[in-house]
Amino acid sequence: MKCYICNEEGKDSDAVAICIVCGMGLCSKHVIREETEVWTGGYPLPEEKVEHTLPRILCKYCYNVVKKS
User: Fold this and answer.
1) Is residue 14 packed enough to be buried (19+ CB in 10 Å), middle (13-18) or exposed (0-12)?
2) What is the C-alpha to C-alpha distance for residues 48 and 7, in angstroms, rounded to an integer?
3) Which residues contact 37 (CB under 8 A, 6 or more apart)?
4) Is the pTM higher than 0.90?
């Protein structure tokens, strides 16, 4: 799989990760690693925040949307 953003820029780079939201392939230059809070509890509302976070891989487009919300 190739990096989608590099392809848009006319470059050819191998992807090292996939955006968890949109599925876009990303090279190491375009990967954004974001730590995400984890909540436990039953549906529909989580009840307790877990002490540790989990990493989330995002592209720049999805990162901007997630950060705005």
Assistant:
1) exposed
2) 42
3) 49, 50, 53
4) no
pLDDT tens-place values along the chain, 69 residues long:
999 999 999 999 999 999 999 999 999 999 999 988 888 887 888 788 899 999 999 999 999 998 887
Please name the amino acid found at residue 11. Answer: K
* CA atoms of 6 and 60, how far apart (whole Å): 12
- Residue 1 CA to residue 5 CA, distance in Å, equals 12
Query: Which pair of tokens denotes residue 57?
Result: 């891989």
CB within 8 A of 46, min separation 6: which ones? 39, 40
Task: Give the largest CA-CA distance in the chain.
Answer: 47
